[in-house]
Design brief:
Bound molecules: NADP nicotinamide-adenine-dinucleotide phosphate
Mean pLDDT: 96
Number of domains: 1
Strand order of the largest sheet: 2-1-3-4-5-10
CATH superfamily: NAD(P)-binding Rossmann-like Domain
CATH architecture: 3-Layer(aba) Sandwich
Low-confidence stretches: none
CATH class: Alpha Beta
Shape: globular
Helix content: 25-40%
Number of helices: 10
Number of strands: 12
Strand content: 5-15%
Structural class: alpha/beta
Length: 287
Amino acid sequence: MIVIGRSGQLARALAGQESADLTVVRLGRPHLDFRTVCDTTALLSDLRPDIIVNAAGFTDVDGSERTPDAAFRVNCDGARRIAGSAAALGVPLIHVSTEYVFDGFSNRPYREVDSAAPLNAYGRSKLRGEAAVAATTPDHAILRTSWLYSPYGRNFFTKVLEKSGASAEIPVVADRHGSPTSAFELARGIERVARNLLAWRDSRRGRGIFHMTCAGETRWAGFASEILRNTGCTVRPVTSDSFVELARRPMNSRLCNDRLSDVHGVVLARWQDALSEVRTRYGEVGR
Ligand SMILES: NC(=O)c1ccc[n+]([C@@H]2O[C@H](COP(=O)([O-])OP(=O)(O)OC[C@H]3O[C@@H](n4cnc5c(N)ncnc54)[C@H](OP(=O)(O)O)[C@@H]3O)[C@@H](O)[C@H]2O)c1
C-alpha cells in the first residue's frame, strides 16, 4: 500500500498498520509535492503499489480562505494527479475527504446521497477533489471523515492538552456537533476497505463515496471535557460566535456511516473508546 502524505496524522497512523502481509510505504514531500511539477506516475510506478491511499491534504481551514489557490492545488489538482496515476497503474485509489463538503444546516447525520454545499474554501477544494477523483478513475473509494485527531502534530486533542497546562479552564464551542474520529481507528477502517477493494478487484463492488467516522456523537465542548478527564482543567462551554474565525464552519458535522457498514462491513469504535487509545499512545509518543 502506498500512502500519499508522509508526516500527516493519518499517514502516520496508516504506517502503524504495517503487518506481515501489509507493507505500507509513505510518499510525501519533498519527493512528491503537489506545488511542483513531477511525474507522479513514474514515481509511483517504481514502488509497484497494489493500492494507493491519498492521505495528503491542505487541511488549514482558515488558511484555505486566505490562500484558496494553495488549497485547490493540493486538495483538487493533487487529488486528480494521484487518481490519474492510479488509473494508469491499474490500481484502486482510496481518497480521504471531509464532512466540510456539507453546509451543516441539516438536523440529522449526513448521508452520501445528500447534496453537498460547502461553506468555505477548504470544503469547496475538497468537494472539487472528490469530483476530480470520480471523473478520473472509476476504481475509487472516497472516504469522508470528520474531527480527525491523534497524538501527532497539532490537532484539537493535542491543542486542548497543551492549553490545559497553562490554564485551569478552557473555553470550548458547545453549539457544533459531530463525531471525533481517531486517526488510528480511521487507519484500521481504511485497511479493511483496502482489503475489500483488492478482494473485489474484478467487480465494481465497494466503490464510490462512503462516510467513515467513529461511532457516537458529541459537541466540541463534550469532546474537550473527555480529553481533560482527570487533568484538573475544566471546560467552559461557549457559542461559536465567541471566536473570530475566518472560515465559516458547519454546525452539524455528523455523518451517517450505514453505507460503510452495509457494503464494507466496517464499523469504527465509539469515539470515547477510541479516545482512550489515543490518550494512552500520546503518553508513549510524548509531547
Ligand atoms: N484534520 C481533520 O480534522 C480532517 C477532518 C476531515 C477530513 N480530513 C482529511 O483527512 C486527510 C488527512 O488529514 P490529516 O489531518 O492527516 O492531515 P495533516 O496532518 O494536516 O497532514 C497533511 C498531509 O498532507 C500532505 N501535504 C500537504 N501539502 C502537500 C503538498 N503540497 N504536496 C504533497 N503533500 C502535501 C502533508 O505532507 P508532508 O508529510 O510532506 O508534510 C501531510 O502528510 C486529508 O485529506 C484531510 O482533508 C481531515
